[in-house]
Design brief:
13 strands, 4-stranded antiparallel beta sheet, mainly beta, homodimer, 3 helices, Jelly Rolls, globular, 5-stranded antiparallel beta sheet
Chain lengths: ~160, ~160
């Protein structure tokens, strides 16, 4: 390998794990705590991509990726990079090891989340759409979400009242 | 692990390497040979996703992912899952090991391809757009491409004449 290559990746390539990670969530305070062990790195944003989103998601032991949810218009794709992830859908749970993947089609109504019940980190590569108007339903908790025209994600109670 | 989980992934999850792979290409015969060592598994299509494309691309030793190209309207994202991939862009070459990634923004004009100069397979997870109207430019060979409204990818000579 040349000296130049040995210096590590340079744009448009990069090491995704060199980016800062965040456990920020749009969930309101009463429901926020369950998501604090999920850490996101916004890879596609770093790369300047605007047509879809790619995130590197790390779920610490005991954490969840999100509450179980379904998208009305957005497709979602998840590839397990590391660890043993528990995928929960309407049909129940299954364990996905590294190298497995799953696709969640827009409008299917089948809600999903990933859990980490192991003692090691789980890493997921998560691909999704970014266009506005997507409605997100949460069958297990009193939330509904909508991606607004300005890119913000607004969460309301199921009866439409704000948090 | 329960007996059910031990049976392996079930929909909407799956093992992407259990899907058939293909080295089919839209390139015309004189330029096709260089792509015969690149094998694609169409993961997102298998999952029924329609808003973006995710492919698992295997490049055998000596192969290339494509000719060096740039998209006019499509974003592209590549994550190296396995092996040592050589990324070639306008700025030259660099080696990307497993865990590195790269983003190629629509309209940048910077053309890229991945090469495998190692003795082991390279595996890439490749994410891209699917909407029609994308123009693909190839600075190194006599081709230009366009994704048609019907989803087919049409390749012409640079002077606009058909192959």
């Amino acid at each position: 390998m040349s000296d130049e290559a040995a210096r590590g990746p340079r744009a448009p390539a990069f090491d995704p794990r060199a980016l800062p990670e965040s456990n920020a969530t749009a969930y309101p305070p009463p429901l926020r705590d369950a998501n604090m062990m999920r850490w996101n790195r916004r890879i596609s944003r770093h790369a300047g991509l605007r047509n879809f989103a790619v995130n590197l998601t790390r779920i610490a032991p005991g954490g969840q990726s999100s509450y179980r949810h379904a998208h009305s218009r957005h497709d979602e794709f998840v590839y397990v990079l590391r660890g043993e992830a528990v995928l929960e859908t309407d049909a129940g749970e299954q364990v996905l090891s590294a190298g497995m993947c799953a696709g969640f089609t827009a409008g299917s109504g089948d809600a999903h989340r990933f859990l980490n019940r192991s003692a090691e980190d789980v890493e997921l590569l998560v691909v999704g759409d970014v266009f506005p108007g997507d409605e997100v339903s949460y069958p297990d908790v009193d939330m509904q979400g909508r991606l607004q025209e300005d890119g913000s994600f607004r969460i309301l109670h199921k009866d439409g009242t704000p948090y």
